[in-house]
Amino acid sequence: MIYFMFDETDDEEAELRDRWRTLVQERLPAQARRRKDWPVYLDHCFARILLDNAFGMMWRKVIEPPAWRNTPLPVLQTAIDLGEDVLADRADLWALNDASLIMRGKKPRGRKPATRRPGRKRNGRWHGRAAQARRFKTG
Description:
This protein is mainly alpha-helical.
């Protein structure tokens, strides 16, 4: 297991890690809302796919969570490049997802789009519209 210390004083490193978080938490899920045929739509699924493919194996076998902080910079840059390629339709998200699932010992999904269930609870966390309503609820 690799243990990596994020140097918060290194502006270039901080910028790269911010780019990763923006890509996975905002840009890819936003594109998934427009592309209803994509195999995933949740932020952690995009992170899994990109990191597994960048590492060439299940990322949790290599580094400890949180991935945004502990992924070595060259691997993180590879994952970001893959994500940018997905956004630009230069990389096949379905093939990357299947590769990630196979690395985890699961059956590949093929070209089957994700089943979106807004407002469902998964692993104790709310997803979809219900999650947004809970995050911004005041009072």
